[in-house]
What we know:
By secondary structure, the protein is α+β, with helices and mostly antiparallel strands. It has seven helices and 16 strands. The strands form six sheets. It has a four-stranded mixed β-sheet. The chain has a three-stranded antiparallel β-sheet with strand order 3-6-16. A three-stranded antiparallel β-sheet has the order 7-9-8. The N terminus is likely disordered. The site of calcium ion has 8 residues, from loops.
Amino acid sequence: MMVSMESCAGIEKKAAGGCCAPAAERGDIPAAASLVAQQQEPHEQMLARMVELPGGTFLMGTDTAEGFAQDGEGPVREVTLDAFAIDRTQVTNSVFARFIAATGYKTEAEVFGWSFVFWSHIPKARFQELVQDTVAAAPWWCKVEGAKWDAPEGPGSNVAGRGDHPVVHVSWNDALAFCAWSGQRLPTEAEWEYAARGGLEQKLYPWGDKLRPEGVHRCNIWQGEFPEYDTGDDGYAGTCPVEAFPPNGYGLFSITGNAWEWCADWFDAAVGRAEGRENLQGPKQGVARVMKGGSFLCHKSYCNRYRVAARSSNTPDSSASNVGFRCARSL
Length: 331
Ligand SMILES: [Ca+2]
C-alpha cells in the first residue's frame, strides 16, 4: 500500500493540499454511510451537542498577507447562509464510542488496517516494531498498522482518560457514516467559516487578530521547533479536551487548533473565485475534501493554517492522528 503527499507543510510551506495531514492511497470500500443508516442516535442527545446560528451574510476568506492565495483563501467575498445548527465541539471519543457501540461500524483505518501517527507520539521502544513506513516528503508521518480511533498511537494504546478529546483517525467517509447515525451532516466550508468567525468580521482568529491576547494561549497548536520538539507551552503536546480553551462568540469550542475538521465540500483552490454567493456547496467534483481549523501540529513557521480563513484538504479515505470533525444540521 502506497502513501503519498500532494504537498507538505515544511516542504512546500504554502502549498495547498495535504497540509499537516498526509493522504493515504487506499482502494475502494463499500459506501460507509449506507451501512449504518438504519441505526439512529436518540434525537435529543444529538441536539444537546449543537448550537443554532441565525442565517445571514458574512465576509468569507481573506486577502491579508497572512493568507495563502494559492490555497484559494481569497478574494474576500460576501456569502449569504440560511440558518443552521452546528456542534459546539468536535465529536469526542466518548460520543464516537457510542456510535460504534450502536452500529458496529468499522472505520476505514480498521478496514485498511493502518493509519498515520505523528512520530513523536509513538513509544520510542516500539518504534521499529510499529512503524511500517514513513511519508517521504514528511517523515514525521508514520504508517502504523493497527492505529485507529481507539488506539490512536497504535496497538497497546487506548483512549482511556481521553473521552473528552476529539476523535481522530476518522476519514471523511467515516464522518459521513457517523452523521447517518446521528441525523446530522458535515458543515459546508462556508458554514464552518461563518461559525468559526463567531460574529467577528475579517479577524484572523475566532477571538480576534492577536494569537495570544495578553500572552494567553487560546487554542491548541505547536510551540517549539517542528517537527523535533513541541514544548506544549499551551498545555498540550497532542490533542486536548475539546473544551480546554474558551469558546468563540457563537459558543463554539476548539474551532481552530486541536484537530483538523472535515467539511462537506470538495476542495478547489479556485473556489474563492467561483460563481454564486448563497449557501455555497463547493465544487461539484474533486479528489479531496476540505479541512478547516488546523491542528495541534500547526505552527506559524511552517503551517499557519489555524486561522479561520485558512483551508486545506485530504482525500476522503485518509485518516491521521490529527484529523477529526464536527457536525452540522439544517434548520
Ligand atoms: Ca499544543
